[in-house]
Write a structure and sequence with these properties.
Elements: H1 35-55, H2 63-72, H3 74-102, H4 107-141, H5 143-153, H6 164-180, H7 186-193, H8 208-230, H9 237-260
Helix pairs in contact: 1-3, 1-8, 2-3, 2-4, 2-5, 3-4, 3-6, 4-5, 4-6, 6-7, 7-8
Length: 261
């Protein structure tokens, strides 16, 4: 028996019949984003966030200090904020894979924890855009003028402001679900929950809690990413080379189009 699109309908025991449609899976996971995208995200995204946090460690936490650091040390600050923004965006496939694994035994925590955590990524990406604009202002008008402008507009309402709670709330739910589902042990689940203390908002520097948060995220997700990447056959050398060329060409093309736009 098939559905309208031609995909067979199977029961959970594998026999044909009118039952819930089970996804084609690798190792029990949903096919999107897949083992390779999800596994690479689990490994790379936390590391990028860690790089971003550590590079701004020497500079004052609040926005006047961050803007001054941009003018005085543009290289490290550019890499720091760029790495953090990239890690934020690249974290969504990791959350999809993590939520899928949690959902086998703790579907409620997987659903709400995953939704809140992903919404939190959207909010942090918005903050990254504001950071970028403020830095361009500082480059052209100076740190003091930029700090005065940011200070006058810091409390301005935006729709993404309602997601601030989601930035913090999703991680503890995912941590509880991961522990209950056996995806993470108690120590790594607690480390995942610690991600909730990562400071949020515009032009934030690094505090000891920031370091704890990204260290916990790395401890929780990087080993899981290695496990996911090993959970299946390794690609051949020709396949790796082909995909490396495709990804490199795509990144170059998107970069050129982005600069042109």
């Amino acid at each position: 028996m098939t559905e309208a699109g031609g995909m067979p309908l199977v029961q959970e025991n594998g026999t044909p019949g009118r039952a819930r449609l089970l996804p084609v899976a690798w190792g029990g996971e949903v096919p999107f984003p897949g083992r390779w995208v999800g596994g690479v995200s689990l490994v790379v995204a936390p590391v990028l966030l860690g790089v971003g946090v550590l590079l701004r460690l020497p500079y004052p936490f609040f926005f006047p200090g961050q803007l001054a650091a941009r003018v005085e040390h543009p290289g490290p600050i550019a890499v720091s904020y760029g790495a953090f923004a990239a890690g934020t965006v690249l974290l969504w496939p990791a959350l999809a894979v993590l939520a899928a694994r949690i959902g086998r035994r703790s579907p409620g925590a997987a659903l709400w924890g995953g939704v809140l955590a992903v919404l939190g990524l959207f909010a942090r990406t918005f903050h990254a855009g504001v950071d970028h604009l403020a830095f361009q202002f500082a480059d052209r008008q100076g740190a003091e003028v930029a700090a005065r402008f940011v200070g006058e507009t810091y409390g301005a309402f935006h729709v993404f402001g309602v997601l601030n709670l989601a930035i913090m709330g999703g991680w503890p739910l995912l941590a509880v679900g991961a522990w209950r589902a056996g995806v993470l042990g108690p120590v790594r689940a607690l480390a995942l929950a610690a991600t909730a203390v990562l400071p949020l908002g515009v032009l934030k520097g690094t505090t000891p809690l920031s370091v704890v948060a990204v260290a916990g995220l790395c401890l929780a997700l990087v080993p899981l990413g290695v496990t996911v990447l090993r959970d299946g056959p390794a690609p051949g050398r020709a396949t790796v080379l082909r995909w490396a060329l495709v990804i490199t060409a795509s990144l170059v093309l998107m970069t050129l189009m982005g600069r042109a736009g």
